[in-house]
Design goal:
The structure is a homodimer of 360-residue chains. By secondary structure, chain A is mainly alpha-helical. Helix content of chain A is 38%, strand content 3%. In chain A, the strands form 2 sheets. Chain A has a two-stranded antiparallel ribbon. In chain A, strands 3-4 form a two-stranded antiparallel ribbon. In chain A, α1 packs across α9 and α2 crosses α7. The N and C termini of chain A lie far apart (67 Å).
Chain lengths: 360, 360
């Protein structure tokens, strides 16, 4: 009896040890490819994040007066209650117009090498200028935005505190404040990050298997780094073009930015942080099921038909990328004054179309 | 020298004393008509407010999946960042359709005797059912709302905790949870409330003058109690009908509820708490300037042409009704599941119109 117990304990120990070895090997490989989301950012591209700018950006983020209609704020489409996106196929903006692409999350966007699906904005400051002015989104103009902000005494004060200078209430500074706030919208402490840092128990067996597959099948060629994507551009359909429903012929992706034939149907690799929270998937927003999206990626990007259980395991792994969501207090916005431009719900006379007019 | 000083001190004391007497007299009159907003409510109509219901209601309040489009939450039109309304003429809902009336604030709505401009909902529970289903607002159906909530495991759990019973995930319980949350949306500690409680310095000289005028000219006939309105119905134009721009002929107000000729153009007296935050004014939302609204009320309801300085003083007093705004944390919403009904942005086949279909 005693002997059998000892032998049992001995086997269990060997199993645990070998499993711990296997976990450490998996972790070592993963740590060479990925990086955990930090708990806090203090600077972006060498520039310190300034609390007064974050505080102002926090208000601007929720302020519907940045839109011509006074109905749409940044948070309308990048909703921080649901993973920083909008969970609809394509965003709906001014006049209930449909945007042309699915909405990328703002969470961890600070880690992307460039913004938008086609990377046409270098950073968050530049990105913020897009949706504010896109006729199918917030449909505003620089003049109107600046007149609005200048008409609100408390904003004038906060712009002064945040930026100083002679004429601080500008669209450019509003974009800087928004970017500062967005730099705080990161999601540390995902199960995957805890695994990277040494906690074997942070991932389930299926998730570890999925992580192994994710690295072995080559997903990591595009999805790597802290944001597991967002760093470089790749054709959708490296190996095999998906159907026209998923990759509509009219949206040529990065081609519209570079005008280079080789950039046709090229998009920035999607960052995968919090991907379980942000259906539907792809720039076309055509796929609601994450496992189906994984299978399509295997097929189109890697030329590999994943088995159902492989797709299942990778999907389980992707669920481990959901981090702690930022806890945000709803700001109390400073009231308008008599000179604040009034809301305007009319459709623009000329509804311009084309990816360059949108923010996605 | 000493004598002159003494005489000066003596006069100052008399002045201060007489001013303190005057303030106390004003306060006594005001306390007979108004009541301060309490710091916290613990029950509504004899029913205890349950924390689990408030917590669930807090999530539902911000959940855009209660709308057919997945774009519109309660907070879209009753925005807690800007005084619990939307600061546009009439609310804009599903398909960018315009609602028929200006949006009443949710703040302190728990103190109203009935809800909506025409009082057609007895309480907040009943009110919540309106916008959820109105085709020009959230355009949802009870079946679809219940299917949505039932498809989200964390909601099922929270409904169980909040309500118990065999089948707690119902539209009726969702409305109860929303009403519980809304009962927390009160704004204590306005300068006027501090004055009512004994702080002479809480109101400026102009505000005290305005308060006196507000009582002397008869505004208090309709605007009284804790919410300074919201308790009874009155014709818009008791003495003199305002122009058709401000009182459009087609909206007959409470007549649509009671079908009684004497209720034509009758509306619930607007509660005036936080009125400085909630332009534009009147059910038609036609007037942006609070002083102008005051002058119109004097004219149409009291048959009294207020002088500019009287309207100014009353307006100053109305600014003292802005209380502490509720500080709300943005909830993190539970994710959808595979069975959650998908967003639908199409316009309803038959766009029904008429006040009975709307929530305002």
């Amino acid at each position: 009896m005693k002997k059998r117990m000892l032998s049992y304990l001995f086997s269990a120990t060997i199993l645990a040890t070998s499993s711990a070895y296997a976990d450490q090997a998996l972790r070592d490989r993963a740590n060479a490819i990925f990086k955990p989301v930090p708990d806090k950012l203090t600077e972006v591209a060498g520039e310190k994040i300034m609390p007064a700018q974050v505080e102002l950006g926090h208000k601007l983020w929720f302020d519907p007066r940045l839109s011509r209609s006074h109905l749409i704020s940044c948070n309308t489409c990048h909703n921080l209650s649901i993973g920083g996106g909008d969970n609809v196929q394509v965003s709906i903006g001014h006049g209930w117009q449909k945007g042309p692409r699915n909405n990328p999350t703002v969470l961890n966007a600070v880690f992307n090498a460039a913004q938008f699906w086609d990377g046409r904005a270098a950073d968050l400051k530049e990105q913020a200028l897009g949706p504010l002015q896109a006729p199918v989104e917030m449909n505003n103009t620089p003049e109107r935005i600046e007149a609005t902000l200048q008409s609100i005494p408390q904003y004038v004060e906060e712009f002064k505190n945040a930026f100083g200078g002679k004429n601080p209430v500008t669209l450019a500074n509003a974009a800087r404040a928004l970017a500062a706030f967005e730099a705080t919208l990161i999601t540390p402490n995902a199960p995957f990050d805890r695994f990277l840092k040494g906690d074997d128990k942070a991932l389930s067996k299926a998730q570890k298997e999925g992580l192994g597959l994710f690295m072995n099948t080559g997903c990591t060629a595009c999805h790597n780094g802290v944001n597991m994507g967002g760093q470089a551009y790749f054709p959708f359909g490296v190996v095999k073009k998906p159907g026209a429903d998923i990759l509509p012929a009219e949206d040529k992706g990065r081609f519209t930015v570079t005008n280079t034939a080789s950039d046709e149907y090229v998009f920035r690799a999607s960052p995968l942080r919090n991907v379980a929270l942000t259906p539907p998937y792809f720039h076309s927003g055509e796929v609601w099921d994450l496992k189906e999206a994984v299978a399509i990626m295997g097929d189109s990007q890697l030329g590999r038909e994943l088995t159902d259980s492989e797709a299942e395991a990778i999907t389980a792994f992707l669920h481990s990328l959901t981090g702690d969501q930022p806890r945000i207090t709803l700001p109390i916005l400073p009231p308008s004054s008599a000179t604040t431009p009034k809301p305007d719900h009319e459709l623009p006379a000329q509804i311009r179309v084309g990816a360059a007019d949108t923010d996605l």
